[in-house]
Design a protein that fits this description.
heterodimer; A: alpha/beta; 8-stranded mixed sheet; 16 strands; 37% helix; B: mainly beta; 4-stranded antiparallel sheet; 8 strands; 0% helix; 55% strand
Chain lengths: 511, 73
Amino acid sequence: MPFEEHIAEHERRTARALAMGGQARLDKLAAAGRLNARQRIDYLFDPGSFLEVGMFARGEPREDWDKTPADGKVTGYGKIDGREAAVVSHDITVKSASSSPINVRKMGHVRRAAISNGMPLVLLNESSGARIPDTMGAIGTGTLGQDPTQFIRMREVPYVSAVLGPAFGTACWFTQLSDFVVMRKDAQLAISSPRVTEIAIRQKIDPMELSGWRMQAEVTGKVDYGVDSDEEALDLVKKFLSYLPSHHNELPPRTAVPTGADEPANRMLELVPEDRAKVYDMRKVAAALCDPGSVFPLKERFAKTAFTALGRIDGRVVGILGSNPMFKAGALDPDSCDKACTFFVLCDSFNIPIIILVDTPGFLIGVEGERRKAPGKVINMMSALQMCSVPKFSIVMRKSYGQAYLNMGGTRNTDEMLAWYSADVGFMDPNVGVNVVYGVKREEDPERFEQLVQEIKRDSSAYDLAGIFSAVAVIDPRESRRWLARLLEVHQKRPTKGIGRHLLGGWPTTF
Amino acid sequence: MATERVKAEITGNVWKIVAQVGDALEEEQTILIMESMKMEIPVMAPMKGKLRELLVKEGQEVSEGQDLAVIET
């Protein structure tokens, strides 16, 4: 047979690469209920669509050649629901998927291919960080950094990360660069491992406090979802991508509208209490406005006063930002400004129209806020909103006061601002205003106080807002979905085929 | 068994206590309701668990960050 020796050699080398770090290590992963790097790829991509590049790459030192199949990071291309994507799947069984000059070269290759060909980059992250001892010393460290574009993020394509084990160093950096992050509840995400950190700072470290999913989902806000299994993580990666275009010069995919999609919005008056003192859950309002089952919350455990989600209205993808009265009365704090900013960046980069649902007493002011740079955060959010060139709509539902009115799309800060007939807009809550303006306290003179509250409340209605044409319409809450659906038809940015200017594409990747 | 301290997210008064010590709580189930900024704001369980201790009484003023309850997770 011609090429017989070549065929045998090729089969031997292929089998060696597919064997990864050896059966014992693979068995250990399976026993722990975890998929290995190649099983994750199989689960992620449509059957038979994976095209591997870099299978025969291996570690640089000659003594590692046979011990480092694919050099610990499996890379290539595949299809997710028929759409192309690039992948980096870290193989923890090969030198703990540590980063080396060669596997970083592989990562750079698929990243550049993703950007130049307009396909999402999926990162299945699990790595101990830089390969030690190879990176020690000037020669080891000085060999790093060969790619001066490695960490430039212009959001030409979506980056999505699943943190499926310990993720330090490069795996952590690319998680920070990602638009969406899902993390296993037993995984870790930090600059360095708890062990290295303990040695460096000579302090006992609680691994979950340093790098656990709740810290990342609730305190830093980097992680969108904490999950129990690899499969759950990969399902969420696919779900997130189903809302996004493959690249920034494409519109998000439109889907069919489920039957009865208009029904929930007709019950809006049951979801939002008329009594201003009663709170409600803005997430339910978003669910009623969107096609049934289409609301996909982002960063739900972080900065809960601002609710952010992707969803669909009449099959069109939208981004929803709502102040949520259920938490801190819907008052916006520095974290919720950061969350809103990141959300605007995502929507603006990928041509997703923004809908802002407003019921907020304003910004949470105080010493703590100032110490946490609240003014800067407020104005970052405001700048980001004004720089967004996707269609923007807002609905003032009940309260909207002061600068927060503007940050939440007030007047011309969205393309069309609607007001429910229950809208109440002013510079500050009338109860606070009476004290500030007239120096009258309720407990000292209740009668006069109430009279002044009514005076301040005058001219603060939805019709006042529409009278000066800041609100374009005063609507019945039950009409909200129909209005939004029509506005999405009207505002299609036809001269650029719905493609925005992406001024936020280079906005810092984390906050 | 791990415990989790539920903290006040905002300064205000404890208006009404809804859950009782020993109750099994779902994530986001209301433990008590605070009155702040002229609104009734629920304080909810951050995780599924059992209410082990209530650290405040109805009518009590609380500050942001103050411990309100302890749950076993």
